[in-house]
Structures are given as C-alpha cells and as structure tokens.
Amino acid sequence: MKTATQRGALxxxxxxxxxxxxxGVLGNVALQAQAIRHVHxxxxxxxxxxxxxxxxxxxWAEDPATLAAxxxxxxxxxxxxxxxxxxxxxxxxxxxxxxPDVRVEPGPTPSSRKVTVAVHWQLPGETAAHxxxxxxxxxxx
Length: 141
Fold this sequence. Notes:
Layout: H1 2-5, H2 9-60, H3 67-71, H4 78-87, E1 101-106, E2 112-121, E3 130-139
C-alpha cells in the first residue's frame, strides 16, 4: 500500500528541482545582461569625458582670442568640425538634438575666455539623451 501512495513523488521532486534551477539560471542571465548594460553606459560616460577634456586641453594650447571663431558652435570653425566628428564615436551622437555644444564667452579678464563644452549621446532603446559637460576659464599664461 505504501508504494502505491508514493507513486510519482520522484517525478514531482525532479520537476520541482528543474523549475528552481531554471529560475536561478534566468535570474543569472538577467543579472549578466544588466551588468553588461551598466558597463556599456560607463564606457560611454568615460569616452564623453575624455573627448570633452581633450578639447579643453587643445584650447589651452591656442590663442584665447581665436577660440570663438575656431571652436564655437555658432561659428562652426575647423576645430568644432573636427570635434563633432570625434563625438560621433558615442552611440546616438549623430541623432537630431544630440550635436555637441561649445560656447566661448568673455572670461573674467580681457585676455581670458570662459568655455563651456557639452556632448550628448543616446543608447539604443533609450528615449532620453545622456549629457556630459564641463566649463573652464582659458587664458594666456
């Protein structure tokens, strides 16, 4: 009698173990996908910071009086054009509204300029763009 009441219990235990194992595997896959997404986002932020700070570094090596004509968004000079091409390494940087913004304004002294640089990028599947920007005062040493 005892064996008749336990018939199928081993099969039920095996199915339960497979279900628990499957849920664990799916959770691990979701965790890995989320980690990869975060690593890619961090890489984009690092690339954006590098591009912006490299541009500011190049500006430091030039005459502050020529910065607006060469790098300003409004003027669209050769420096701005080169920077815009570099920014296209970021995903979604070529989308409408994601163009880089470089503003050159008068600085605290007559021979200095206040520079504000911002880049935008948008990861696939996202509706809002990310932004990285910095501001610096560039003057003759």
